[in-house]
Amino acid sequence: MSTSDDLRIKTTAPKPAFRLSMLLYDQRYRSITIQVFFLFMLMLGAAWLIDNTVNNLRALGRDFSFAFLNAPAGYDINQRPIEYNSQMTHGRAALVGFLNTMILAVLACMLATVLGVIAGVLRLSNNWIVGRLMTVYIEVFRNIPTLLWILIFGAIMTEAMPAPSAFRGDDPAASMLFNDAVAVTNRGVYVPSIMFLRDLGDLRLGPVAPSLNWLLVFLVLIVGVYANKRLIEHATAVQNATGVRPKTWWKSILILLGPVVVIFIALGAYLEYPELRGFNFAGGTHLRNSLIAMWLGLGIYTGAFVAENVRAGILAISKGQTEAAFALGMQPGKTMRLVILPQALRVIIPPLISQYLNITKNTSLGLAVGYMDLRSTLGGITINQTGRELEGMLLMMLIYLAISLTISGAMNVYNSRVKLKER
Amino acid sequence: MSDTHAQTVAYVRDSMLPEKPPPIAEKGAIKWLRENLFSGWLNTALTVLSLLAVWYALMAIGPWLLNTVWNVQSLRECREVLDGASGACFAVIKDRWHQLLFGFYPPQHYWRPVLTLVLMFVALAPVLFSQVPRKMLGFSALYPFIAYHLLWGGSIWLPVSVILGFVLGYVAYRLLARFAPLIAIAGAILVPVIWWIMFAAGFTSAMTSVAPIGLDFIRSDRFGGFLISLVIGVSGISLSLPIGVLLALGRQSDMVFVKSVCVMVIEFIRGVPLITLLFTASLLLNYFLPPGTAFDLILRVIIMVTLFASAYMAEVIRGGLAALPKGQYEAADALGLDYWKAQRLIIMPQALKISIPGIVNTFIGLFKDTTLVVFIGLLDPIGLSNAIRADTDWNGIYWELFIFIGALFFIFCFGMSRYSMYLERKLKTDHK
């Protein structure tokens, strides 16, 4: 009856006409419809917000400008990593605040990492009492707000430490630590500072002027670290070729420390000790109570979280790895250092990145103890003085965002380098 | 040869000797001590160091904590009672506990927040424990309105009119469902919105004038202390979970545009400190809203805290979604489930189960972060501790207040983390 020709004609796919309902019920078009609708609503919302802002600003007779950054700030900042006085601009004050934020973040990250690794490893210790102590530390710090810890450390520094006058007299109530080098007082901690007899001057770099002496030391250190890396590579090459690893530790020490010591001697470096003069200590470096309270508060608090990450990382390594290492005759310490930790690091690093980010963001609590960070300068006094809430907050948020994205970007690069290379 | 071996054994013992006690060093406390505290020189050193640390801490804090004063009116009297000895002056807690807990809430109305808290546990019970009858979920749904009315008070018709909106939406959905599902959904959204915008205010004022029922209205600025932490924390927690789920789904979505918007929102919120968002709530929100809009500071803070927590929640849930085997998605497709059904019945329950520890961690973090509202002038426990110190009676008192506040937060956060462990164990289905 029917030929193959008929069949072929009948089986050509029908081309349905496009109907409006297909926008919603056809898989092919639905996602586009939803996205267009979503985009439309979003733009409507954004337009509404911007329109409100423009209207509100006009009603207040205000403009939107960042010119206030060039106006004189007129306020003092108690911790100045770079030159600053109250006649300088709001922009300069914001830069000082930013540097203070970064100083605090770096210090607190280091403390948290050290404490966290120690506490995390010790919590898994066979020693019953050490394990319990670490559990208490971790639980107590994790379950009480950071702000409270910062205030507690602030109160310890200002209330429980001796006043400078307690150091005076023949039989003083308080004495300096470490052979008269460090003074812990209720006005802050005074530590010796490194000074140079011969000053090479400053490098003029627009807004900042770093000391050439320190730049030189820094440069020599970097060269030393690079040379040390080459040395270790060479040792590995020799080991691969001959099977015997040459001793490198004394060469490493020489390469890392030798040039720096030479530079220090050449520049005439000496330690300036803090001394009690008049009503207060003078000389040395003054670490303010606010910095110490923030540093200890953030560092010890976040250390408890890092400890939990470290513990989780170690527990994630299968027991067979430990047993294999023991079967090879490795000591427990060596097993931890050579077998467990390198593998655990892969698990530990991603959460560690977010802890570093948390520290950086939590530095904004500095206001509680009077630490002059970015939030207290640009986001606090500058906004209060100029009334530029919108611009100031926007700028501050963007700076914090840039810091966060930079840290997470850099750490992700590192993370991808140590990641398990699978086939 | 082979059949002689039975006789080659000269002697076989046919009675057992009684068991001997293990050597003294291998049993009881001594064995435990040897294994757990003194198994090597390093362990011994650690034990001695820890004992020294514990001893030192006890010596430093013990006498102070044991010698407490409860019945005085000021720090000066307290010092007179102590007479130079070291001792804690917990009289400040006895004097000001009501402020630390309730802020400046009128004392004759303290029963309201307390009742709210008790009812909160009743409302939470069916959500948290599966043994509780399912019917109580109805009460849980009603609880937010009850809590609002108990805490703030005012006319009872305001929450009733809001509830009526939801009821009308449901009725519209049921009526329109006969025609088309899409129309029904549109109706279920539009009818309540029209009700709330056009008629709710009129209904409330009319009913209030007819039947003025309700509790005394209490302004938000009377709220303070732990009450404010709980209100902000609990609302933020309960609102951030659904928004976080939506954001996580958006980030996992195939739709490029939806995905990129979700990524930007999440990364922006996670990249800035909570404090800047709180300052936005207190300083900038009136720029973004139509002129003349002014709404409650607590409400603004709740919105910002919710947004903040949602971004973190989204990342946690995304982790759960990513950890789910691909086969689960394929199985849902194979069953012919549509997107929302697959998410609701197969994907989300498992993803949420995987992310329980992260979710609870976010909750705990959010609850602790409620203390940051002190920076925008709300009187949370820490803000009140400053206020108490500003009083000449208690000027200079620190540790007792810190201990009290710290203990309150510790109890709540520790409780939450223990509950999460219980939940994890209960939902565990693998046999590892």
Which labels suit this protein?
heterodimer; A: mainly alpha; three-stranded antiparallel sheet; two-stranded antiparallel sheet; 6% strand; globular; B: 432 residues; mainly alpha
Which word captures the global form of chain A? globular
Mean pLDDT of chain A: 82
- Termini separation of chain B comes to 53 Å
The helix/strand series of chain B, from N terminus to C terminus, equals: HHHHHHHEHHEHHHHHHHHH
Total beta-strand segments of chain B:
2
As a whole number of angstroms, the C-alpha radius of gyration of chain A is 30 Å
Q: Biggest sheet of chain B, in brief?
A: 2 strands, antiparallel
Rg estimate of chain B, integer Å: 31 Å
Biggest sheet, spatial arrangement of strands of chain B: 1-2
Relative strand content of chain B: under 5%
Biggest sheet character of chain A: 3 strands, antiparallel
Determine the strand fraction of chain A and express it as a percent band.
5-15%
- Secondary structure class of chain A reads mainly alpha
The number of helical elements of chain A comes to 14
Spans of at least 5 consecutive residues with low confidence of chain B: none
